[in-house]
Amino acid sequence: MVLQLRPIAKALHKDFRHADQSILPAVEIRYRQTKIIFKIGPATSINEVLKQLIQERVDMVRISMAHATHEGTRQTIQQVKRVCGDVGRQIAIMMDIKGPEIRTGHIGEPVYLEEGQLFDLVMEAPKAEPVQQEVRCIDVNYPGLINDVAVGDTVLVDSGLIRMKVFISPG
User: Fold this and answer.
1) How far apart are CA 85 and CA 93, in angstroms?
2) d(CA 155, CA 153)
3) Which of 6, 54, 77, 84 is deepest in the core (most CB within 10 A)?
4) Which domains occur in the chain, in start order?
5) Are the C-beta atoms of residues 99 and 76 closer than 8 Å to each other?
6) Per residue of the chain (171 residues), what is the pLDDT tens digit?
7) Residue 37 forms beta bridges with which residues?
8) Residue 58, helix vs strand vs coil
Protein backbone atom coordinates (compact mmCIF):
# COMPACT_ATOMS: atom_id res chain seq x y z
CA MET A 1 0.00 0.00 0.00
CA VAL A 2 1.33 3.43 -0.92
CA LEU A 3 0.28 6.71 0.60
CA GLN A 4 0.63 9.49 -1.98
CA LEU A 5 0.64 13.06 -0.79
CA ARG A 6 0.55 16.29 -2.71
CA PRO A 7 1.24 19.70 -1.20
CA ILE A 8 -1.86 21.83 -0.92
CA ALA A 9 -0.01 25.16 -0.73
CA LYS A 10 3.43 26.28 -1.81
CA ALA A 11 5.77 27.89 0.66
CA LEU A 12 6.51 31.24 -0.91
CA HIS A 13 9.81 33.02 -0.77
CA LYS A 14 9.43 36.49 0.77
CA ASP A 15 10.41 38.12 -2.55
CA PHE A 16 8.05 36.04 -4.68
CA ARG A 17 6.09 38.37 -6.94
CA HIS A 18 2.61 37.53 -8.07
CA ALA A 19 1.36 38.34 -11.58
CA ASP A 20 0.19 41.76 -10.41
CA GLN A 21 3.76 42.48 -9.17
CA SER A 22 2.68 42.91 -5.56
CA ILE A 23 4.84 41.18 -3.02
CA LEU A 24 3.00 38.34 -1.34
CA PRO A 25 3.69 37.60 2.32
CA ALA A 26 5.93 34.64 3.06
CA VAL A 27 4.17 31.47 4.15
CA GLU A 28 5.73 29.98 7.24
CA ILE A 29 6.99 26.44 6.70
CA ARG A 30 5.82 24.52 9.73
CA TYR A 31 7.43 21.17 9.01
CA ARG A 32 10.98 20.65 7.91
CA GLN A 33 11.50 18.05 5.20
CA THR A 34 14.29 16.19 7.01
CA LYS A 35 13.36 14.07 9.99
CA ILE A 36 15.82 13.25 12.75
CA ILE A 37 15.71 9.67 13.97
CA PHE A 38 17.84 8.26 16.77
CA LYS A 39 18.30 4.71 17.98
CA ILE A 40 17.73 4.16 21.66
CA GLY A 41 20.52 2.23 23.33
CA PRO A 42 22.75 2.31 26.39
CA ALA A 43 23.98 5.86 25.73
CA THR A 44 20.58 7.34 24.80
CA SER A 45 18.33 5.53 27.28
CA ILE A 46 19.47 7.66 30.23
CA ASN A 47 16.55 9.95 31.12
CA GLU A 48 18.61 13.16 31.00
CA VAL A 49 20.09 12.28 27.57
CA LEU A 50 16.67 11.27 26.26
CA LYS A 51 15.19 14.54 27.57
CA GLN A 52 17.95 16.54 25.87
CA LEU A 53 17.42 14.75 22.54
CA ILE A 54 13.68 15.41 22.62
CA GLN A 55 14.24 19.07 23.51
CA GLU A 56 16.73 19.34 20.61
CA ARG A 57 13.90 18.46 18.20
CA VAL A 58 14.44 14.82 17.28
CA ASP A 59 11.39 13.49 15.47
CA MET A 60 11.50 9.77 16.10
CA VAL A 61 13.08 7.11 18.29
CA ARG A 62 14.03 3.76 16.72
CA ILE A 63 13.82 0.69 18.92
CA SER A 64 15.74 -2.28 17.52
CA MET A 65 13.85 -5.51 18.07
CA ALA A 66 16.76 -7.77 17.06
CA HIS A 67 17.53 -8.81 20.64
CA ALA A 68 14.70 -7.12 22.54
CA THR A 69 12.26 -8.78 24.90
CA HIS A 70 8.59 -7.84 25.18
CA GLU A 71 9.09 -6.54 28.72
CA GLY A 72 12.20 -4.54 27.79
CA THR A 73 10.43 -3.00 24.82
CA ARG A 74 7.40 -2.14 26.96
CA GLN A 75 9.66 -0.40 29.49
CA THR A 76 11.49 1.54 26.76
CA ILE A 77 8.21 2.76 25.23
CA GLN A 78 6.89 3.79 28.65
CA GLN A 79 10.17 5.62 29.37
CA VAL A 80 10.03 7.53 26.06
CA LYS A 81 6.39 8.49 26.63
CA ARG A 82 7.13 9.57 30.22
CA VAL A 83 10.07 11.77 29.16
CA CYS A 84 8.01 13.22 26.28
CA GLY A 85 5.34 14.14 28.83
CA ASP A 86 7.95 15.78 31.06
CA VAL A 87 9.30 17.79 28.12
CA GLY A 88 5.85 18.59 26.73
CA ARG A 89 6.67 17.33 23.24
CA GLN A 90 5.65 14.09 21.55
CA ILE A 91 7.87 12.10 19.17
CA ALA A 92 7.13 9.05 17.05
CA ILE A 93 8.27 5.59 18.11
CA MET A 94 9.48 3.19 15.41
CA MET A 95 10.00 -0.48 16.13
CA ASP A 96 12.62 -1.93 13.82
CA ILE A 97 11.60 -5.57 13.66
CA LYS A 98 14.09 -8.21 12.71
CA GLY A 99 13.39 -9.89 9.40
CA PRO A 100 13.48 -13.63 8.89
CA GLU A 101 16.82 -15.38 9.03
CA ILE A 102 17.55 -18.65 7.36
CA ARG A 103 19.60 -20.87 9.65
CA THR A 104 22.09 -23.49 8.59
CA GLY A 105 22.36 -26.93 10.10
CA HIS A 106 25.31 -28.16 12.13
CA ILE A 107 28.55 -27.57 10.26
CA GLY A 108 30.94 -29.46 12.52
CA GLU A 109 34.22 -28.16 11.18
CA PRO A 110 34.93 -24.81 9.50
CA VAL A 111 34.05 -24.54 5.83
CA TYR A 112 36.54 -22.67 3.66
CA LEU A 113 35.29 -21.42 0.32
CA GLU A 114 37.23 -20.11 -2.64
CA GLU A 115 35.77 -17.50 -4.98
CA GLY A 116 33.94 -19.29 -7.79
CA GLN A 117 33.73 -22.61 -5.92
CA LEU A 118 30.35 -24.38 -6.09
CA PHE A 119 28.50 -24.76 -2.81
CA ASP A 120 25.06 -26.34 -2.30
CA LEU A 121 22.36 -25.24 0.11
CA VAL A 122 20.22 -28.30 0.79
CA MET A 123 16.60 -27.77 1.79
CA GLU A 124 16.48 -30.86 3.99
CA ALA A 125 19.09 -32.44 6.20
CA PRO A 126 21.09 -35.26 4.61
CA LYS A 127 20.07 -38.71 5.86
CA ALA A 128 23.61 -40.02 6.27
CA GLU A 129 27.08 -38.62 6.87
CA PRO A 130 28.19 -37.03 3.57
CA VAL A 131 30.93 -38.67 1.59
CA GLN A 132 33.79 -36.35 0.53
CA GLN A 133 32.34 -34.54 -2.47
CA GLU A 134 33.65 -32.07 -4.98
CA VAL A 135 30.73 -29.76 -4.14
CA ARG A 136 30.38 -28.86 -0.45
CA CYS A 137 26.87 -28.58 0.98
CA ILE A 138 24.99 -27.59 4.09
CA ASP A 139 21.34 -27.89 5.02
CA VAL A 140 19.14 -24.86 5.70
CA ASN A 141 15.94 -24.56 7.74
CA TYR A 142 13.81 -22.95 5.02
CA PRO A 143 12.29 -25.42 2.56
CA GLY A 144 10.81 -22.60 0.43
CA LEU A 145 14.23 -21.11 -0.38
CA ILE A 146 14.45 -23.06 -3.62
CA ASN A 147 11.26 -21.35 -4.85
CA ASP A 148 12.30 -17.87 -3.73
CA VAL A 149 15.62 -17.56 -5.59
CA ALA A 150 16.46 -17.66 -9.27
CA VAL A 151 19.62 -18.07 -11.29
CA GLY A 152 21.66 -14.88 -10.99
CA ASP A 153 20.23 -13.85 -7.59
CA THR A 154 22.61 -13.00 -4.76
CA VAL A 155 22.33 -14.87 -1.46
CA LEU A 156 23.93 -13.28 1.60
CA VAL A 157 25.47 -15.63 4.16
CA ASP A 158 26.74 -14.81 7.66
CA SER A 159 24.83 -11.51 7.91
CA GLY A 160 26.09 -10.42 4.49
CA LEU A 161 29.79 -11.11 5.06
CA ILE A 162 29.70 -13.75 2.30
CA ARG A 163 27.92 -13.09 -1.00
CA MET A 164 26.99 -16.06 -3.17
CA LYS A 165 25.45 -16.00 -6.64
CA VAL A 166 22.79 -18.61 -7.53
CA PHE A 167 24.29 -20.71 -10.30
CA ILE A 168 21.72 -23.48 -10.69
CA SER A 169 18.22 -23.55 -9.22
CA PRO A 170 15.98 -26.52 -9.96
CA GLY A 171 12.99 -24.58 -8.57
Assistant:
1) 14
2) 7
3) 54
4) 37-96 (no CATH), 100-171 (2.40.33)
5) no
6) 334 344 444 444 444 444 444 444 444 445 667 889 999 999 999 999 999 999 998 999 999 988 888 999 999 999 999 999 999 999 999 999 877 778 888 777 887 878 888 888 887 655 655 555 566 778 888 888 888 888 888 888 877 788 888 887 665
7) 60
8) coil
